[in-house]
Amino acid sequence: MTLTDGRPEEKAESRPVGLGAAGWARWFWRTLTSMRTALILLFLFALASIPGSVWPQRGVSDAKVAQYYDDSPALAEWLDRFWLFDVFKAPWFAAIYLLLFVSLIGCVLPRTAAHLRELRRKPPAAPRNLARLPQHAVLGGDLTVEEAARRLRRLRFRVTTGPGWVAAEKGYLKETGNLLFHVALLGLLLAVGAGALYGYRGNVLVVEGDGFANTVAAYDRYMPGQQVNAESLEPFSFTLEDFQATYIAQGPKRGQALDYAARLAVSDAPGAPERDYELKVNEPLDVNGTLTYLIDHGYAPTFRITDGQGQVAFEGSVPCLVVQPATFTSECVIKVPDALPEQLGLMVAFLPTAVPAEGGEWVSVFPGAANPTAQVYGAFAGDLGMGNGRPQSVYEIPPEILKKMKPLVMKADPLAKGEKLELPGGAGTIEFTGVREWVALQITHDPGRLPALLSAALATAALVFSLTVRRRRVWVRTGAGDGPAEAGGLTRTEGGDFGEEFADIVAVLNQGSTPGVKDAR
Amino acid sequence: MPAEVHPGLAALSDQLVLVAVLCYAVAMIGYALDLAFARTAEASPAEAGAETRAETRAETEPALAAVGGPADTGKAAAAASGAAPEDVRDGIAAATATGEGTAGSETATGDAAAGFEAASGADGAPSGWVLRAGPAAVVLSWLGFALNLGSLLTRGLAADRWPWGNMYEFVVAMCLAAMGAFLLMQLRYPVRFLGAFVTAASALGLGFAVHSLHVDAAPAMVALNSYWIAIHVSAAIIASGLFIVAGACGVIFLIRHEAADHLPSRQELERVAHRAIVIGFPIWTFAVVAGALWADKAWGRYWGWDPKEIWAFITWIVYAGYLHARATAGWKGRAAMIVQLVAFACLLFNLIGVNIFIDGLHSYAEVP
Ligand code: HEM
């Protein structure tokens, strides 16, 4: 919003003259940094983000991307070719925002220079005929140049004087705000970029009673930025002592969660004393800028499995996947590679609050563990195929392996806590010994976090100045004998009502003198 | 956090909304009458002031060109030509009042058209009650606003939480914000003409909320259980209210005929829309930043391109585009208005489309 400077786009209209590489380069730079190009790039930026909400994105909903590949592989392949599952990492997306930000730099630099010059320059001399300005008033007779200048300075105007006139200007903060806003956007981009390069993110599932130490190996999934080295992980550790979920017990919203809380015993560094921390959904654990978030939870029933030879082949908890979030009906797989004479694989349905339903079925009616049961709905003996070195998911037995195993039990009666199921053929027994819960945690370190916050805060604050401050100029001619003193004013910012403010200024200028006739604003 | 919901307050809240809809609907008819008959006959003093000022500016602006350098010339010319339609409108006013009953606004109902004959006396001047329709509509709007506010408050008290935890509550709150933005604006500026459109939008919005989105008052989901909801969602709602006012201006701008009619001049519409966006945009910016801060607390990252985030971002970019467009030659007027309406469409899509059609982390809307 400069009052005097022409805009870059006016120059950009001219075609490259005299050709030559330098001429083209100049033309290209001017076009790129013109306001119209900025506008087009802005729209492209918005347009380019739309696909990100249309197709599932990797890193946000990986499961849905996989689903897409299952449902329509050919289409998915084509979409992937255009990075439509990674829109925000796509080269074409980067091209748009990089061009936009280059354009921004090209726009901000000259404007900053111009603004700095402007800040040092005096307001321009009074025009000859103040009556032709949008704001004009005739003042009381006895105002001197010095007095007018003094009063305008008191109104925080920057003032300069000449023979018989005073020129005053204020509202420089508008352009300052505008420039700071755009610079802050650049800062934000850099902060986000730094976070992506030097930060990491990891997920881990922890069962009550178990611990976690922050090392790469401890994660179930670890996603480092390109510049992260494994030694730089903050060396804290904790034990999950207890997890509590509370639910609405009655009414139409029965079963809706009210609160989750995980009690951790945290040690900030190896050997440091333990401290208690209550981890909640909106209250992450912060250890020197590495944050631990509670993002999910579920049940991990515990079992004791005795094999055919009477040995305890398995004892401990098994994390179950939630099948029905409303009731926490869950399923888990127990693999017992140590069982003799044959390895065992069991599939268990876990119902936190089981009630009998029609046809001998059991269902869960509430997410809290009021009447927990574990129902073995498949037990198999044979080779689990874990020796071949190929990694397996702990949540399933691959179907091709299952096919080769010998079914022992299909759909046994549900076990209450403490009950046992005898597997046929002397294969062993399984005892449901108790219920624990697991939490899924996300641990992140993002060095760009604070700079991003500061940039965003600066951008917001600067924007307020940029949009609300008005640049305005006021001139006073003291009349010098021929005619009355008069004042004129103008603002170039649209909207806003300078008339009122101008009337106030005139009132200040008129103080203590016989007020002259105020003509139409 | 208690799990109990106070049933009496919840029921009161539901009733207050219904009465608010009624107030808005009646107010809308009042504004429509005002728009169709009274406005042309009697421009409010403030409006008259604005027009005089516009004319003065048109005369004096060429002087600026000399003062302010070449960049000013375009603006001066725009101001000069922009002032013209207002004069035309004043000229036409008498003609309309004497009886070519085009019943200019589309909100004017059959009743209004019939009333026209009665309203304009033999000498062509509208009779008294039509002149009172506008002020009465304003009073009714304030009443509706108070009921709308009361409804949100009682709902919040009933569930003992901030009353914007699901889509029904968002929409009720947005109607409140739009009415609030309009009512505050009309205290200072001559924008009563917007009343018909804002009350229509709010009445429809509330009606839609009650009819299709209503869910019983209940405690919030765990993730919403944070003071950030007060900061982030309130800011988004206030900004949306302002954007609705700007959107209404945009719609009027486009349906307005080139020839003068009962509706305000294009220049006036642009001014009001711009003012609303200039206030709304920083608030929206703040809402997005606060959302990022909340996401940082709740989800372990401040920005993750969740669909809701994407559309908030797109909305922000397009409104920024509007502000740039206003600053660029050749994009003023109609083009800038269209940009503004596209941004508004993005805003609405984010509220409705994303909640219903796309699921993401922000799936709190509880659309029934
Ligand atoms: C990251 C993308 C950008 C965003 C979000 C953005 C946002 C904004 C906003 C909100 C304003 C309004 C401030 C006002 O009206 O005073 C503004 C003004 C401005 N922007 Fe940008 N901007 C961006 C990129 C650019 C670029 C690339 C340029 C240069 C080519 C640019 C040049 C300007 C100028 C010159 C103004 C002042 C307009 C005036 O004089 O009224 N902006 N920008």
Question: Mind sketching the topology for me?
Answer:
The complex is a heterodimer of chains A (521) and B (368).
Chain A: H1 8-12, H2 20-32, H3 35-54, H4 62-71, H5 73-81, H6 91-120, E1 135-138, H7 145-154, E2 158-162, E3 165-170, H8 173-198, E4 200-207, E5 211-213, E6 221-224, E7 237-247, E8 257-267, E9 274-279, E10 285-287, E11 290-307, E12 312-317, E13 321-324, E14 329-336, E15 344-351, E16 354-356, E17 362-364, E18 373-381, H9 399-404, E19 406-409, E20 415-416, E21 420-423, E22 428-445, H10 449-468, E23 472-477, E24 486-491, H11 498-510
Antiparallel strand pairs in A: 1-24, 2-3, 3-23, 4-6, 4-22, 5-7, 7-8, 8-9, 10-11, 11-12, 11-22, 13-14, 14-15, 15-18, 16-17, 18-19, 18-20, 21-22, 23-24
Helix pairs in contact in A: 3-6, 4-5, 6-8, 8-10
Chain B: H1 7-41, H2 45-68, H3 71-97, H4 110-119, H5 128-159, H6 167-188, H7 195-213, H8 228-255, H9 266-298, H10 307-327, H11 334-357
The complex binds protoporphyrin IX containing FE (HEM).
Protoporphyrin IX containing FE sits between chains A (1, 33, 35, 38, 42, 100, 103-104, 107, 178, 182, 185, 466-467) and B (320, 323-324, 327).
Would you give an account of this structure?
The complex is a heterodimer of chains A (521) and B (368). Chain A has helices at residues 8-12, 20-32, 35-54, 62-71, 73-81, 91-120, 145-154, 173-198, 399-404, 449-468, 498-510; strands at 135-138, 158-162, 165-170, 200-207, 211-213, 221-224, 237-247, 257-267, 274-279, 285-287, 290-307, 312-317, 321-324, 329-336, 344-351, 354-356, 362-364, 373-381, 406-409, 415-416, 420-423, 428-445, 472-477, 486-491. With 521 residues, chain A is of the alpha+beta class. In chain A, helix 3 (35-54) packs antiparallel against helix 6 (91-120), helix 4 (62-71) packs across helix 5 (73-81) and helix 8 (173-198) runs antiparallel to helix 10 (449-468). Chain A is elongated. Chain B is mostly helical and 368 residues long. In chain B, helix 1 (7-41) runs antiparallel to helix 5 and helix 1 runs antiparallel to helix 7. Helices cover 75% and strands 0% of the residues of chain B. The chains are: A alpha+beta (521), B mainly alpha (368). At the A-B interface, helix 3, strand 8, strand 11, strand 22 and helix 10 of A face helix 2, helix 3, helix 9 and helix 10 of B. The complex binds protoporphyrin IX containing FE. Protoporphyrin IX containing FE sits between chains A (1, 33, 35, 38, 42, 100, 103-104, 107, 178, 182, 185, 466-467) and B (320, 323-324, 327).
